[in-house]
C-alpha cells in the first residue's frame, strides 16, 4: 500500500516535494506555519545559481538536476520561470568561470565590456540606461532559469492541489511526533524552523534583505557581485529585485537604513538615479554548517522521516534535485530496511 505522506513546510522545498509525491499518486498533505509570500522562499530573488550552501561537491549535481527540470518549465507561461542572462562580477579579484558552468555555456566577460565606451553599444544603453560596469574587475556570463516567486510559488501550490494534495496553513508542530498518526511517511522541509522542530543546532539563519523596485527600462540581464558589499539587481516580469545582505541574524524586521544602502549601491552599479522602493523583504536563508540535509531517519514512534532542509542561499537552485532524492529515499526498498543517508549528507 502507498504511504500517506505529511510534509512540514510550504516553502519551495515542501511544495516541490508535494508535487513529486502527489503526481505519483501518493495521498499527500502539506502542513505549515507560514505559506506563500510569508515564507523565506517568498523573499528570494530567485535565480538558479549555487550560493551559500555546503558542500559544493554535492550541491552541484543536485543543482544541475534542478536546472534541467526548470528548463522544461520555461515552456509553461504560467510557471513564472524564464531564462535570463546572469552577469556575475567581482570588484576585486579575477573571477574564474566555474568548471560546472562551462557546459552550460558560461563565458568570461571581456574587460572591454566593463569599460564605458564598450557598454555604449549594448542593448541596455540603446534603451536609455547607461550601465557603468567600471567598478568591476572581471566577470562571467551565463544563461540561467529565473523563478518569479510571486508567480512560481502559487504555480507549485496549484499544481500540488490539482494532483490531489492539500495544504493546511497556520499549523505549527513543536515536534514531528505531533503529526497525526494516520500519516506513515513524514517529510521535514521546515527550512530554518528545523532548528527547533528537530533540535538541529547546525542550522543558522543567514538573513537576507531585498528591496523591490519598479522594472528598470533597458536592464535585460541580472547583475550580481558577491564581494562585499553583496550587490544584485534582478529584473523580473513586473518589477526588479535589488539586493542584498547576508548576516547571521534571526531578525525578520526590514531595516530602512539597510534598504537605503543597498538601493544606492545597486543604483551606483547601474549608473541610474535611486528608484522608488515598492516593498522591502527579509528572509532567513536556512544554512546548515555540516551541509544540506537530505536524509532518511525515523522519529520516536518509529515512523519514517525524510529530512530536506538546510539549503542556505540555494533553495530554489536545489529544489527539484533534492525533492527527487527525497522521493528515492522514501521509496527505495533497500532504504526501508535500515538507516539510509543520501549522497547529499
Ligand atoms: C534575500 C534572499 C534571496 C535569495 N535568493 C535566492 C536565489 O536567488 N536562488 C536560490 O536558489 N535561493 C535563494 N534564496 C534562498 C532560498 O530562499 C531558500 O533556500 C529557500 O527559500 C528555502 O526554502 P525552504 O522551503 O527549505 O524553506 P522556507 O521557505 O523557509 O519554508 C519553510 C516552511 O516550513 C514551515 N515551518 C517551519 N517550522 C515549522 C514548524 N515547526 N511547524 C510547521 N511549519 C513549519 C514554514 O512556515 C515554511 O512554510 C534567497 C533567500 C533570501 C532570504
In this entry the ligands are: flavin-adenine dinucleotide
How many β-strand stretches?
Answer: 16
Structural class: alpha/beta
CATH homologous superfamily descriptor:
NAD(P)-binding Rossmann-like Domain
The H/E string reads EHEHHEEHHEHEEHEEEEEHEEEHHE
- The end-to-end span amounts to 29 Å
What is the third-level CATH name, the topology? Rossmann fold
Largest sheet: 9 strands, mixed
Whole-number radius of gyration?
A: 20 Å
User: In CATH's first tier, which class applies?
Assistant: Alpha Beta
Strand content: 25-35%
Number of helices: 10
Q: What's the domain count?
A: 1
Q: What is the residue-averaged pLDDT?
A: 91
What best-fitting shape do the alpha-carbon axes yield?
globular
Report the helical percentage: 25-40%
Query: What low-confidence regions span 5 or more consecutive residues with pLDDT below 50?
Result: 117-121, 123-127, 334-345
From the coordinates shown, what is the CATH architecture?
3-Layer(aba) Sandwich
Amino acid at each position: 500500500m502507498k504511504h500517506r505522506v505529511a510534509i512540514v513546510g510550504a516553502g519551495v522545498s515542501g511544495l516541490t516535494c508535494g508535487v513529486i509525491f502527489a503526481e505519483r499518486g501518493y495521498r499527500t498533505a502539506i502542513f505549515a506555519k507560514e505559506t506563500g509570500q510569508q515564507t523565506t522562499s517568498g523573499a528570494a530573488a530567485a535565480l538558479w545559481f549555487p550560493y551559500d550552501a555546503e558542500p559544493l561537491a554535492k550541491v552541484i549535481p543536485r543543482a544541475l538536476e534542478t536546472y534541467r527540470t526548470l528548463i522544461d518549465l520555461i515552456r509553461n507561461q504560467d510557471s513564472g520561470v524564464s531564462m535570463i542572462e546572469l552577469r556575475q562580477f567581482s570588484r576585486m579579484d579575477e573571477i574564474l568561470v566555474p568548471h560546472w558552468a562551462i557546459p552550460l555555456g558560461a563565458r568570461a566577460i571581456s574587460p572591454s565590456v566593463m569599460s564605458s565606451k564598450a557598454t555604449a553599444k549594448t542593448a541596455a544603453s540603446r534603451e536609455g540606461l547607461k550601465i557603468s560596469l567600471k567598478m568591476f574587475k572581471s566577470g562571467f556570463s551565463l544563461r540561467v532559469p529565473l523563478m518569479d516567486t510571486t508567480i512560481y510559488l502559487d504555480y507549485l501550490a496549484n499544481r500540488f492541489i490539482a494532483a490531489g494534495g492539500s495544504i493546511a496553513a497556520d499549523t505549527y508542530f513543536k515536534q514531528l511526533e505531533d503529526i497525526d498518526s494516520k500519516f506513515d511517511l513524514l517529510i521535514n522541509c521546515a527550512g530554518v524552523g528545523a532548528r527547533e522542530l528537530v533540535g538541529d543546532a547546525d542550522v543558522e539563519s543567514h538573513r537576507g534583505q531585498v528591496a523591490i523596485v519598479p522594472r528598470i527600462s533597458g536592464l535585460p540581464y541580472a547583475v550580481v557581485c558577491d564581494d562585499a558589499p553583496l550587490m544584485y539587481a534582478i529584473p523580473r516580469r513586473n518589477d526588479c529585485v535589488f539586493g542584498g545582505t547576508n548576516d547571521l541574524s534571526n531578525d525578520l524586521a526590514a531595516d530602512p537604513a539597510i534598504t537605503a544602502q543597498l538601493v544606492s549601491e545597486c543604483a551606483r552599479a547601474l549608473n541610474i538615479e535611486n528608484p522608488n522602493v515598492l516593498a522591502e523583504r527579509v528572509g532567513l536563508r536556512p544554512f546548515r554548517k555540516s551541509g544540506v540535509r537530505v536524509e532518511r531517519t525515523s522519529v520516536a514512534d518509529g515512523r519514517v522521516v525524510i529530512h530536506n532542509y538546510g539549503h542556505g542561499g540555494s533553495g530554489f537552485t536545489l529544489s527539484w534535485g533534492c525533492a527527487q532524492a527525497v522521493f528515492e529515499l522514501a521509496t527505495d526498498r533497500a532504504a526501508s530496511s535500515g538507516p539510509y543517508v543520501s549522497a547529499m549528507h
